[in-house]
Amino acid sequence: MLLLRTDPLKPDADVIRFAAEVLKRGGIVAAPTETVYGLFTHAYSDGGCAKVFKAKERPPDNPLIVHVDSVEMAAQIAYIPEEIVDVLRRIWPGPITLVMKSRGAVSRCVTAGLDTVAVRAPAHPIPLAIIKELEAPIAGPSANKAGRPSPTTAEHVVEDLNGEVDVIIDGGPTFFGVESTIIDVTRKPPILLRPGPFTVEELEKYFGPVEIPPVARGLIETDVALAPGMKYKHYAPNTPLVIVHFDLSLAVETLRSKGLKVAVLCATGRCTNADVVIKMGDDLYEVAKNLYRSLRELDRFSVDIGVVPAVEETGIGLAIMNRLRKASGHREAFNLGQLLKYGLA
Ligand code: TXA
Ligand code: MG
User: Which ligand is nearest the CA of 33, by number?
Assistant: First the structure.
């Protein structure tokens, strides 16, 4: 395995050429995007795709996102609904993935045999340069082991996939820190499958009204009818985590008075004394950027419980709450009674 460092804004041409060579030969490459690190294969390679699933320990019925450099390249693998071609020209590259009817061009392994394909153009010079060099799309999931938080640094990728990847490109920490927004445009109105940095408020400006099912808010875990990946558990730290909707200091003091060792994940100015304090950030973008690193950190301290304040579900806050609900196994406390139920369970 090779770890290559390069400037995320001016990627080294030799590093890009080398990554493209590895992909051409059916190898797999981890690289940053503007959201999280991805684990990439040539999108037409059955062998490369199989390696991605094996390294990630991903169930074979959970399809990958195909990354393209242009609307033209997307049109080679998906039937783009005519009315959204111009929309895509305006919103790509960016952290927004569209589920569309597949042309059957990419490896069946990539789409897990579905007749739809998820496509996005990443707004990051490294994957864009690799796609251009390869003259083909690259498919990949987040570069974590299945069930672990998505990686936002190359170190996280090494933590999870050391020795199982041909090349890891270290382009520094990713910008947004949460995965792309996914919408299914095969349905009318389009359905939000996963909230992300491209907000619902923005989506509706381009696509009109968008349906937001309870799974997209993270309120329930599974809706196999909407997206195959939803039946799998995600990003759960080993330490129990509770989302607190009331006074955070009161929550922490109460848990500590019961003899529990408590960690607090601070968000948007809501912080308090605890046995361990992990600062995520003062605004929602900072919180998103530091969310997965904070969840990984939580397990490094031997605390009995972690608490995190709820954030407002607007803008990128919808993506944050979706990830927090999954990470907490849907433990949300609106009062002390509920908190104690979780804390003393
Ligand atoms: O920001 C991102 O989207 C990152 C970077 C690397 O691009 N990728 C990412 O991939 O988060 P992954 O595999 O961790 O999540 C992709 C999700 C999965 O939940 C999968 O089930 C869903 O997209 N998906 C892929 N193809 C689909 C399809 N045809 N229909 C419905 N859902 C699909
Ligand atoms: Mg993932």
Answer: 1
